[in-house]
Structures are given as structure tokens and as C-alpha cells.
Design goal:
The complex is a heterodimer. Chain A has 10 helices and no strands. By secondary structure, chain A is mainly alpha-helical. Classes of the chains: A mainly alpha, B alpha/beta.
Amino acid sequence: MTEVQLLEYVVSTAFLTATLVTIALTVLSMALGVLGGLLLALGASSRFAVLRGVVAVYVWLFRGTPVLLQLIFVFNVLPLVGLRFDSFTCAIIALSLNEAAYMAEIIRGGLLGVDRGQRTASHMLGLTRVQTMLHVVLPQMVRLVLPPTGNQLIGMLKTSALASVVAVQDLLLVAQRTAAGNFDYVNALLAAAVHYLLLTTLCTLLVHAVEVRMDVSRKAQRRQRQETRALVAEGGRR
Amino acid sequence: MSEILIETQGITKSYASTTVLSDVSLRIHRGECVVLLGPSGAGKSTALRCLAGLEELQAGSVVFQGETFVTPEGTHRHLRGAIGMVFQQFNLFPHLSVLDNVALAPRRVKKVALPQARRQAEELLDLVGLGNRRGYFPHELSGGQQQRVAIARALAMEPTLMLFDEPTSSLDPEHTREVLRVMRQVIDLGMTVAVVTHEMSFARQSADRVLFMDEGRVVEDAPAARFFTAPQSARARAFLREEDE
């Protein structure tokens, strides 16, 4: 009964733990990647040419080489210069460095998408550069970059499987070991696929929920509904 | 005449090879309403943006409240909202409600507590006739309403000078009227005002003085009554004749 075997794998402690590892890899790498991408994007739109140059080289380097190469490089080369990390940390480092390059481009586009007039108006109102960034530009940029960032998140969930190469006990590695141990490739790999699908579906829903929350026109609709209810209630009282 | 609030001293402004302003000296006195008129491309908006400190100068300087404000070296003073500006494209913050658009700068720049900033914003929205729209977002408002919010937002910083850069150029006649009415209210409050506009009726009724510009120069600087009845320059006469047609 392969269906039963598949189900047993899906709910087994080994697979559930591995799923948590994959989630941790994804969330941490993505968070650091977004943070790094934001810093890089701010650097790319800086007044200082040197900073812009550094960012350009960074993006060129990390987008121009395979993530897998970067991962193996971090795992094998950093110890040579005395930086010794466990494989999980190595994976986080490589994945987030790589992600930062992509997020930098996405966020840079988002910053460019915010109308210049917004900055001029903020400046005339007396807001400092930092205040303008914090209260005017970033909130608008976030709405612009949310859909592509959702894409990146789902991409990261799957790319995190590369960590299995440096022996991180993630979903793919556990699936492979289970498969090899039990001579049951079909069910073990399918079990991993089920978990990945559940996670990507969850991500899609999550991103959509955040988009809805941030959508100004939905906020406006919510207010209109409240006003209508208030009017109806008032009418009822009369 | 009362004290000079802001003046430009021989400012020159050019982009690459085109000179937009050449050797422009103009002054605005406290409590005055000055309207900048002239054909498109005359440099009116650029002159206004220079007053606001938004443009780099190639020569000359802007002096605000007796202090050097802008020189070719840069802007020397952080205004903190002392010069309010209203733009052709409104430039409201789309992610904030109307009330928060008005309250943002007082909160962040003047560190006014939120309840007080909101109360003040409500008063200003009442002033521009939008007290019942405080929870709305900019995209729900008509252009005229958005521009009135923009005026309230600038007033919230209690500026000593208000600059209007073609405030009604992207509005239909009805919304133009409602914005001009609010601008007149602002003038009646005693605010010093400089306006770039194509609304001749507004200039006739509300301006104390007209600066007529053409090809990057101030061609005529006259009290409004005299400018409209007896313009001195041939260029201004031609401009007014065209406007009448």
C-alpha cells in the first residue's frame, strides 16, 4: 500500500523536523536577503559614486554565478581562512548573500517607482531625508515590491533544497536518505514534494493576505462599509 | 511698503546649454500676493522653485527673512516647512489618509503629539471645506479636493510664505474655482503668497503685484491694477491681448 507508506512519511518525525529546517532556512535567508537588498538598493541610489560602484560589482558577482557554487564556496573556502561555521549557517550565509543581489534590484526598482514629487513635497514640509525615506518612500515602495518579493520567497523555499548538498538536514536530504535507506524512492520523494507544495501554497496565501492588508483601495472600501453601516444604524434609530 | 520677506538677487539658472533664468531679481514683501504671469517656458515655475530652494543656481542668491538661503554653492538653511508649496500634481501621500497627510509633518518635524496634530489637521481640513473627508484616501478625492488637502497640508507647518506652482493647471473649471476660492481664503488670512498661474481672473482679483516674465527674465514688475490697465512693455501688451481672445 504505497498511499499508506506515503502518508506515514509525510507525518513522520523525520520529515516534520526536516520541514522545520527548510522553513528556518527559507525565512532566515529571505529576511537577511531583504535586509541586505534594502541596504544595497539604498547604496545604489546614493550620491556617492564609490558606493554605487560597490553595489554594482556585488550584484554582478552574485547574480552572475550559480548559487550552488556560492554555497559550496562558502562551505569549503571560509574554513581555510579560519571562519568555521556549521553547515546550516553556511547555507544561510550563501543563500542570503545571493538573495540580497536579487532583492537589491527589486527594491531599487521599487524606489524608482515612487514619484519624485513625493520627495519634493516631503522636503518642502521640512522632513529630513531619513524621515522622508521612513514615512513616505518606504511605505510606498513596500507595496510596489511585494508581488516580486513573494515570488522570491517561493523561489527561496525551493532553492533552500540546495543546502542538502552541504549536509543540512533539510527536506530534500531527509527524503533522499529515507529513500536510500528503505529502497523506496517514489514515496520518500513524493512525501518531500507534498511538504514543498504545502509550504509554497502557504507562502502564496500569506503574500496575498499581506497585499490585501496593504492595499489602500481596500482600506477605503472598508471605511465606506463602516460609514454605510453607521448610516443604516442611524436610520434605524429614527 | 512693508519688509521684504524673500528676494532673489540676480539669479541665473541653466540646464546644460539652455538658460532658463538669466539675472532675475525679484522681491516679495510680507503680506503680499504676487502673481507670476507669462507665456509657457518663460521661467515662472523655475523662478518659484528657486524661491523654494529646490533648484541649483549658476549665479546669484536667494535671501529669505534677511538671511542668505540659496547660493550657487547650495542651500544654506533647513526650512523646516517655513515655505509651504503647492504643486500642479498635488503630490499628496497616497498611502496616508487625508487627515494623516496633513498631520504627518507637524508630528515628525515639529514633534507635535498625535492627538494635537490630528486636532489641528481637522481644523485645517474644515478651513478648506473637507472636514467630512478626513478618513478618505487621496485616490478617492477629486483633483480639486486633493489640491485643497495639499493646501491644508502646507498650512499645517504654519509657513511664512506659500508658493503655488500652477495649482489649477490640471483641474477642470469647476474644481479650479473651488481651489481658487480656498487660495483667496489663505490670502485673506494675511499669508504672503506667490502664485504661478494662467488664471487671469484670479490675478486680476487677488494679486497685489504682477511679475510678468518672458524668456527667463522679469520683463515687467507692476502693481496688478496698473499691469492690467496700462502694461508698459510691448511683450506684456501682446500677452494680455492674446489672453483676452
